[in-house]
Amino acid sequence: MKHILMPVAAVCLLASCNEGEKNQASLTYPETKQVDTIDAYFDTEVKDPYRWLENDRSDETEEWVEAQNDLTFGYLEDIPYRNKLKERLTQVWNYEKIGAPFKRGEYTYFSKNDGLQNQSVYYRYKNDESIEEAKEFLNPNTFSEDGTTSMAGMSFTEDGELLAYSISEGGSDWRKIIVLDAETKEQKGDTIVDVKFSGISWKDNDGFYYSSYDKPEGSELSAKTDQHKLYYHKLGTSQDEDLLIYGGTEEQKHRYVSGSVTEDSRYLIVSASKSTSGNRLMIKDLSKSNSEFVDVIDTYDSDVYIIENDGSKLFIVTDKEAPNRKIVTVDASSPQPENWVDFIPETENVLSPSTGSGYFFAEYMVDAVSQVKQYDYSGELVRQVELPGAGSVGGFGGKKEAEELYFSFTNYTTPGTIYKYNPESGTYEVYQKPAIDFDTEAYTSKQIFYTSKDGTKIPMIITHKKGIELDGTHPTMLYGYGGFNISLTPSFSTANTVWLENGGIYAVANLRGGGEYGKEWHNAGIKMKKQNVFDDFIAAAEYLIDEKYTSSNKLAIRGGSNGGLLVGATMTQRPDLMQVALPAVGVLDMLRYHTFTSGAGWAYDYGTSEDDPEMFEYLRGYSPLHNINEGTEYPATLVTTGDHDDRVVPAHSFKFAAELQSKQAGDKPTLIRIETDAGHGAGKPTSKIIQEYADIFAFTLYNMGYEDL
């Protein structure tokens, strides 16, 4: 691989840069009024002086947002190398990105981004043609002038004649569904509105299933949404006539409901959940008129879904009595757990399966790194797929009749590469390899295991330029999540190349609360064990300092959503440990999170302040908003959020920033960057992503003492 010379405009993080402490000039923060709001929790009174910032529709809140952004962007504009960072990010981002192709009807479809397009464009070509003959099919960049309306999902009918796709405006979780004649691209019927947390699943060519909530009273961005419902929309009828399938009664009240039709159109599968973990599962035989729903499982203590069926034989993925997951089979006539038969048994590693070309592909996480085994429909092992290296794979999914499948491979130094896989021979070839301006051979990723506070061994992958001296001087970004059974597996970040190529270190810790080691690992970081997650993250930071990768004045911690909570809790518990804190779209008010949008569904991981006095005291004990102390010097902090975030509402970030500004001792800045027409992250246009990373990196390096780059 050739070595790429850095352009003159590239950032320098070398020893010749000024590494002295940067004494920040005192900032004058916008005045944030305090009110006398007090809540009582089990006879304990808790003040909430910034409650008024929860009203995202008020003029007062809008004025506060504008004032905070004026201060933040004024500060960022004064960082001399901010534009250099943006230029380099723009340069490295400008390469063609092609998605894996898929066939629907007479066409093969794929997505492509020329490099800096705000949204990827969908193309297609006839199945008997080549990709060179592809023509533009659907261009989301035309949905809005500024690129903030994005494609949020798409579903073709089995014959490929119709397409239903959803769009998100301004990053909101609320969606609209539009139906097209795939051949003519003419719209069919009305636009379906007010759709949220939903897939789109066709029943033949007649109509489709989707999920939503009743539109809440008050702000649609922050008001509580509590009862999810599954609907069926018949093509050619108005949305007012859509049939309510599940969720219309108190007995059917669930926070998350989804419906999907099996590939052979025989069964409707309905999953209903009260929280983000555990679900009830039902099936309905669509081949029989007036058939009733049959419970596959009617409890909520496990996660269960149907991955495939072969006639009436169901293949079910479950963690019931198998915390690392397994696949079982059962006949649809009596699908309850007592009749399940192991198909791919549980192993010591976490299973994430897919199906395609008449095979099952069992992906296992082995210390957060992928392994893949291929099985036939009798459960016999066909082969272990030899992967391109140590990293993460995705894909291996497709229709039963597909003659070829595609998978992606990536790690922290390898851009996501797509391979075309022959399921009969087990051979594969490169389909698309990004031509990115980054010398992957110059960098290394190393997995280490460190010891947390209670003795638990935690894996962490550390990525940096080869040959660096461990002298404690390197600017280091420590990233974590630790929740909701979500696993952080190795993946390439275009933005992080700018950090890495100039001497920065990037470290990702696989904390408890995640899914890297199955349900037991997840449950070790929830509710009254949530402190384990913060202890794991603190221990990761201490390891990086003790092993002289970095020092506390060159360490930044970063995380988003539940990871924003992680950063907020860590910086309030150990403000001495890091120089910079970067909480993004964070859950920061642990006493009230469940009162907004669908937040009550997170109670499996967090518990709520209304559960009992013990849970209330535990939450108050680590809630970032409630643990900011007067007179403490906190790290330089850049809070980031979006004004259309209706998953973790921006009030979390607003109140946290206001509290921190009022109590911060010393001169380290406390700023909040509020992106307009942006939500929790999905669908954010490329231009906004590049600018946000430039601002985050500039803020971080400037507060580590780098005056010039």
From TrEMBL:
InterPro entries: AB_hydrolase_fold (IPR029058), Pept_S9_AS (IPR002471), Pept_S9A_N (IPR023302), Peptidase_S9_cat (IPR001375), Peptidase_S9A (IPR002470), Prolyl_oligopep/macrocyclase (IPR051167). Its EC number is 3.4.21.26. Residues 490-704 form the Peptidase S9 prolyl oligopeptidase catalytic domain. The keyword Hydrolase applies. Keywords: Hydrolase, Protease, Serine protease. This is prolyl oligopeptidase. PANTHER family: PROLYL ENDOPEPTIDASE. Gene3D superfamilies: alpha/beta hydrolase, Prolyl oligopeptidase, N-terminal domain. Belongs to the peptidase S9A family. It catalyses: Hydrolysis of Pro-|-Xaa >> Ala-|-Xaa in oligopeptides. It comes from the Bacteria. It holds the Pfam family Peptidase_S9. Residues 30-433 form the Peptidase S9A N-terminal domain.
